[in-house]
């Protein structure tokens, strides 16, 4: 490869971290009741930005891993990383279905049963981003 892809991979990660911060700020304002409902257009925009960041991570990661994918896959930490990436894709599809409740209902009006999927999706997202980045750092970095 004529140039290094790793900076683009890490730049995509920085883009994702900023987007997570902006999305969490909206989510916490809704949970605390500072915002009764959220703007559906803004929520949709942040969600699409998350997909863009994740797809860039996957594309740049695949470009780096392409030639040695088989050898890399022999490392349990790499398999763990791919597991977290798969979890992010599936969870992202669920979040796309769940998130618009924030535009039509207040958090306090939701029953516990209605809140559970939202918390699960948030927890899976946080664990998977940290897990994917953490396993990469353990495998390639630290
Ligand atoms: C959620 C998605 C991802 C996150 C958060 C992530 C995170 C990272 C981080 C933090 C590093 C730098 C490690 C270091 O050198 O200190 C890294 C490197 C790397 N990632 Fe990812 N990654 C993701 C997706 C992927 C995917 C889907 C692939 C491949 C299919 C991949 C392949 C690689 C490879 C091969 C390196 C090592 C590059 C090198 O050192 O030359 N990554 N990743």
Descriptive account of the structure:
With 142 residues, this protein is mostly helical. It has one domain (6-141). The chain contains 6 helices and no strands. α4 packs antiparallel against α6 (112-141). 18% of the residues are buried. The model has no long low-confidence stretch (mean pLDDT 96). The site of protoporphyrin IX containing FE has 17 residues, from α1, α2, α4 and α6.
- The average pLDDT score comes to 96
Helix and strand pattern:
HHHHHH
Number of strands: 0
Low-confidence stretches: none
Helix-strand category: mainly alpha
What overall geometry do the principal axes of the alpha carbons give? elongated
Helix content: over 70%
* Gap between N and C termini: 24 Å
Radius of gyration: 17 Å
> How many discrete domains?
1
Count the DSSP helices.
6
Write out the distinct hetero groups bound to the structure. protoporphyrin IX containing FE
Describe the main β-sheet briefly: none
Main features:
142 residues, mainly alpha, 6 helices, 0% strand, elongated, binds protoporphyrin IX containing FE
